[in-house]
Amino acid sequence: MVQDAAAAPGSVIKRTHHTAYAPVKRIFDLTFATAALLLASPVFVLGALLLRRDGGPAFYAQLRIGRGGQPFRCYKFRTMVVDADQALSDCLAACPQRRAEWAQWRKLKDDPRVTPLGEFLRRSSLDELPQLWNVIRGDMSLVGPRPIVAEEAAWYGDALALYESVRPGLTGVWQTSGRSDISYPERVAMDAAYVRQRNLWVDLKILAKTVLVVARKTGAY
Q1: In the predicted model, is pLDDT for residue 4 greater than 50?
Q2: DSSP type of residue 114
Q3: What is the rounded CA–CA span in Å between residue 174 and residue 184?
Q4: What is the mean pLDDT of the chain?
Q5: Potential cystine with 61: which of 73, 130, 175, 179 (Cβ 3.0-4.6 Å)?
Q6: What residues does 114 pair with on adjacent strands?
Q7: Which DSSP letter does residue 140 get?
Q8: Cα separation of 158 and 68, whole Å?
Q9: Is the model's pLDDT at 162 over the cut of 60?
Q10: 85 vs 71, 76, 148, 207, CA distance in Å?
Q11: Which runs of E-coded beta strand occur in the chain?
C-alpha cells in the first residue's frame, strides 16, 4: 500500500536527497570518465594492436541489463579465445566440476578460454577500461551495482527492482570487497545495500578503495 507523504517524512527526505545527488553524480561521471579515457588512449591503441594479432576483435560487447531494465552493450577488451561461447559449452559439457563451479559463481577460476594476454588484462583490471565509454554514453556510472546479464536477473529476486533503479557501475561494493571470491548471494546483498545507502561520499570512498584493490589484484580472474 502506498503511504501518504506526510506519514513517511524519512522516505521523502531520502527521495529528495537522491534527486539532488543524481545530477551531481552524472557531472562527476562525465568529467572523470572523459579525462580518464583521454589519458588511457595509448593503452587502447596498444591493447587493440596486441589483441588483433590472433585475428579476433580487440573489443568484446555483451548485452547487460541497465537502468530501468533496458539492455545495453557493455564493452571490454577481449580476453578470451575466438568462439568463446562455444568453448564454454564444450568445457562445461566435458567437466562436471567446472559445470558446478559455473552454476554457483557464474565464473571459472581456471578458465581455459582466457588467453595469456587476456589473463594479464583481467589481473590488472585493464580489460574494463572500455567501459569508460559506457559511462560517457550514460549506460553506466563510475560507481554502482555490477552490470548483470539477463540470465543473472533470477538471482536478484526482489532486489532486482533496486538494481534497475540506478545505472550499473564500472566499480562498486562487490568489486572492492573480494570480487570473484564473493558468492553470488553476497553480491546481490551488496548491490542492494549500496542502492539504499548511496551518496557522493560513499561513491568517493569506493573509488579510492578501487585503486587499492586494483593495485593488489585482489580476487581478479
Answers
A1: no
A2: B
A3: 10
A4: 85
A5: 73
A6: 80
A7: -
A8: 15
A9: yes
A10: 19, 16, 17, 32
A11: 59-65, 71-77, 141-143, 169-171
Q: Quick one: 158 exposed, middle or buried, by C-beta within 10 A (0-12, 13-18, 19+)?
A: exposed
What confidence score (pLDDT) does residue 19 get?
66
Please check whether residue 134 is in contact with residue 169, taking contact to mean a CB–CB distance below 8 angstroms: no
Express each pLDDT in 103-150 by its tens digit. 777 777 778 888 899 989 988 889 999 999 999 999 999 999 999 999
Q: Which amino acid is at 47?
A: G
Q: What is the maximum alpha-carbon separation in the chain?
A: 63
144's grid cell: 554502482
CB 210 within 8 A of CB 175: yes
CB 29, CB 142: distance < 8 Å: yes
DSSP 85: H
Three cell numbers, residue 168: 550499473
**Non-local CB neighbours of 198 within 8 Å, separated by 6+ positions:** 18, 21, 143, 166
User: Which amino acid makes up residue 172?
Assistant: G
Given pLDDT bands bounded at 50, 70 and 90, which one contains residue 8?
very low
Q: Which helix (H) or strand (E) holds 215?
A: helix 200-216
CB 195 within 8 A of CB 145: yes
Neighbours of 159 (CB within 10 A): 17
